[in-house]
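Annual report, structural modelling task.

Input specification for the 2-oxoadipic acid complex:
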Amino acid sequence: MALTPNEVNQLCDRVLAAQRGAYAIPKLTDDFPAMTVDDGYAVQAALRRRLCAEGRRQAGWKIGLTSKAKMQQMGVSVPSIGFLMEDTARADGSTISTQDLVHPRVECEIAFFTKAELRGPDCTAEQVLAATDYVVPAIEIIDSRFSGFKFDLPSVIADNGSSARFVPGSTRHTVDALDLRAIHVSLEKNGEPVVAGVSDAVLGNPAIAIAMLVNLLAVQGESLPAESFVMSGAITEAIPVKAGDSIRAKFDGMGSVNIQFD
Ligand code: OOG
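The model returned the following structure:
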């Protein structure tokens, strides 16, 4: 690690202020060029401790940058994980405010809800499927706190993987009822199709992404508790949204998720 504990706290303050104030800041490596991925996770862990100390509850985790489309869009080559807080969940069909977001984008993802603890470092997709209670179609609203949505891996990890809001769909499916590698998704903005993809874009199978998340948690000395809600990463590139937009994400065989922005 290149950062001192003081610097980790200082960057936690900086990111938290930008998240709460909904303003953009330069990526953290502009001031701390030696910052590593481990430093990014140390800042993220400080952020999580800070929010939990305020009495906010964690809903689960997310893994991102798991598809080629996302890696190319953001110029990185390794996935990252982040945490999801309960009070950032929004209901299917709801209207989401853009007032407290910087430059939101939406993504289609398959989300998992677990019924048993998963523990790395050697977690497999098979173990993930066995520990999954159900999967739902989902939309993630990401909102990088970095100017121009431009960052590197240490910075985006410190910013909790650009996590802003998440919207679980209302139709639950057991994993044996689906081929998780072959879910066709399409996203419509204001009634027009804007992007489409197939779920195998996420590391071949979104269950592999969840196993990778569990193994990344193990590096931090953590496991994935039972009853975690976990987002497996965007299947397509992220689409910018603004007040007045309506979004429909259709997942063949799984249902759709609808939201509006104001
Ligand atoms: C990082 C978060 C990406 C995903 O699903 O790939 C992400 C970003 O692009 O801002 O959540």
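The mean pLDDT is 97.
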